[in-house]
Write a structure and sequence with these properties.
101 residues; two-stranded antiparallel ribbon; 50% helix
């Protein structure tokens, strides 16, 4: 099991990223628009830099939903390889047949 503080910190980052997603997208659109004057684009760049760092999606770490493990994460299953192996051994994952010989 991962540290509870790390898992909670990641949850806060997810909420903050969702909260600021529209604002970040609009500022990035202004920045990338070459037709706008340079002063307006620079002002938008400063506003984007003033937003909280944890509001960026790149700060979110993929973690296992079962254990909170940050490494060996399968995106499709939203769990780590270790949790997948344990649940597969118990027969809790439909369609997964774990061989042991």
């Amino acid at each position: 099991m991962a540290k509870t503080s790390a898992v909670e910190k990641n949850k806060r980052r997810r909420k903050m990223a969702d909260r600021y997603a529209n604002k970040r997208a609009s500022l990035k659109a202004i920045i990338m628009d070459q037709d706008k004057p340079i002063e307006e684009r620079f002002k938008a760049q400063l506003q984007l830099a003033a937003l909280p760092r944890n509001s960026s999606k790149t700060r979110i770490r993929n973690r296992c939903d079962v254990t909170g493990r940050p490494r060996a994460y399968y995106r499709k299953l939203k769990m780590s390889r270790i949790a997948l192996r344990e649940l597969g051994s118990q027969g809790l994952i439909p369609g997964l047949v774990k061989s042991s010989w």
